[in-house]
Amino acid sequence: MDKELLESWKEISAYLNRNIRTCQYWEKKHSLPIHRLEDSPKARVFAYKKELDRWMKEKLHRVEQKNKLPFTLVLVLLSLAIIFVITFFVFHEKKAAPPSSIKPSVVIMPFDNDSGDDNLEHYREGLSDMLITDLSQSRHVFVFPRDQILSILFELDLHEARTFSSEDLRNVAQNLNATHIIQSSYIRIGEIFRINIDLKDAHSMKSLERDRVEGPESSLFSKIDELTIWLKAHLNLTDEAIHDKDERVGQVTTDFPKAYKKYIEGRNFFNLNKYDKSIESMNKALEIDPKFARALKSISESYNNLGFLSKSRDYAEKALEFRDRFSDRERYLFQMQHNGSLEKTWDKAIEAGLNLVELYPDDIGGNKLAELYLLLEQWDKA
């Protein structure tokens, strides 16, 4: 990045620390200084750093001026705040603070493969992903997304670990500021598949509850549904909260274990930026279950990252044809991203975002909604 000239959208977006679609939007709507070798929208683009720096400085200045309060108004508000604080502490009768009602925040670790069978290794992340997907439907529990957990495992150099010590679990929980962490294992004995689960307090690492489910391999999805209900009960949710927003995990993913295996394989390639291999794995999953909406969504994301926006749009639309195969949380988040970044149908994107944060106020989608409002220069809403 030492050179003065930036010769592609990739270099321009990296210099501005924004994605390519945002930079293209800025050019169209806010005159970002982009040059072309020919007078055509498809011509090769280039830009000068000095011009971009000047544009950014002017843009930020306009935003600051727009949001700046008059100095006298600031003084008046500050004076009123001081008066309120003094009045409150002098005249207000002190009362005991109400009991804390912190929503449980749960880390579900990759499962330990106690079978020693490499053919069952894919269930390490497959089973944890199923449980994360199922439990994250709840509005009363915050479940850390799988990608976020994998990111922490990379930071702690635990991404290749096959088992986790108490110290490993403590470090993961502390990095995520979780209240609970779940350590599980599985083994196959003959035709029976057994899952052991251990719910731990994230601070003390003490086991709070343990359980075991078992059955034929074909019953794994229903066993995950059982474990989800068990976990909610031992996270001290009410009966109403336990059964709130709880579609079968097979309904919001796939009922085919082999399709799920290919899906997990594809997501692992995706997280390594191997998008071509990820698409290949997802297509194999779709051969088994053509209505596997999450696989279609993943292909759309891969094509988007590769720069094939037309293909990305096509697969996003195919995924949304099977919108009932997403959980509410995942569907609203995907609709917001699709309508915003690909279709530029801002009203639909914002509607999906508002639906998401109404159901799940602590979802990361709130940040995505803020970004949409920023693009539309609706600063207060952002």
Keywords:
382 residues; alpha/beta; 6-stranded mixed sheet; 3-stranded antiparallel sheet; 54% helix; 12% strand
Structure report:
With 382 residues, the chain is α/β, with parallel strands linked by helices. Helices cover 54% and strands 12% of the residues. It has 16 helices and nine strands. Strands 4, 5, 6, 7, 8 and 9 form a six-stranded mixed sheet that branches. The longest helix is centred in the first third of the chain and has 21 residues, at 71-91.
Q: What's the quick description here?
A:
It is built from 16 helices and nine strands.
Structural class: alpha/beta
Percent helix range: 40-55%
End-to-end separation in angstroms reads 31 Å
Coarse morphology: globular
- Number of helix segments? 16
The low-pLDDT segments are: 88-100
